[in-house]
């Protein structure tokens, strides 16, 4: 199947994504911050990258920009974010080809 890099500083979310993808047969590697993700992307090939936007050291947007500037890693990037301020949304739109809004379906009590 696919070789996927998951970069997120939140361990629980990173493990949830990793376990889900591995359960369906994908090979998954992890990074805990943007700098670690960029180092892996510069030395390895991936079919898909899942980046959290708000990570320490280097944001997901900065990782994507570095890859684009270096013309390295021609693979899809899924950006995860919890940002909801209008200014953050506009900034994301400037840098994205596609934006998919996933709304919270409900809350568990």
Automatic annotation (TrEMBL):
InterPro entries to which the protein is assigned, alphabetical? Bact_response_regulator, CheY-like_superfamily, Sig_transdc_resp-reg_receiver
State a single Gene Ontology molecular function. DNA binding
Please provide the Gene Ontology terms (biological process) for this protein.
phosphorelay signal transduction system
* Residue ranges occupied by any Response regulatory domain in the UniProt entry: 3-109
Q: Which UniProt keywords apply?
A: DNA-binding, Phosphoprotein, Transcription, Transcription regulation, Two-component regulatory system
**Keyword Secreted carried by entry:** no
Hey, what's the signal peptide range on this chain? none
4-aspartylphosphate PTM sites in chain numbering: 52
Known PANTHER family for this protein?
A: RESPONSE REGULATORY DOMAIN-CONTAINING PROTEIN (PTHR44591:SF3), STRESS RESPONSE REGULATOR PROTEIN 1 (PTHR44591)
Q: What is this protein called?
A: Response regulator receiver domain-containing protein
What phylogenetic lineage does the species belong to? Answer: Bacteria, Bacillati, Bacillota, Bacilli, Bacillales
